[in-house]
Design brief:
Blueprint: H1 3-7, H2 19-35, E1 51-55, H3 65-68, H4 74-81, E2 84-88, H5 89-104, H6 107-112, H7 116-122
Antiparallel strand pairs: 1-2
Amino acid sequence: MPRHYRRGTPKSGRPKGSKKAREDKKVKEFILSIKSQGCNICGYSKCFEALVFHHRNPNNKLSEISKLKQYRSVEKVKREIDKCLLVCSNCHAEIHMKERLENILTEKEILRSPNITQLTLWSQ
């Protein structure tokens, strides 16, 4: 039987009124307030779980937002979110596909491709 069942505490294992639990809640509420704005590209906002933070520049990435939650600092999470775009899963997949195309294919390779129409459709 898991610990949190025996102690009557939440799944995190912390009592509900503890300082850490309150800080965790603040960070979670902050992230949800940002996600309530919806996808920065298409505006999708129906399901929070379908929205992700995409780092504009992966080289400036301190950590993934989900891993920053453990620090319980709204300020640290806010600084990292400022480096990101909030996008839905579909737009996120399109961003990464375009990045892969830009990195893998040179202009000459695209022009020689038998599926040039398919490639140009993807890049739009």
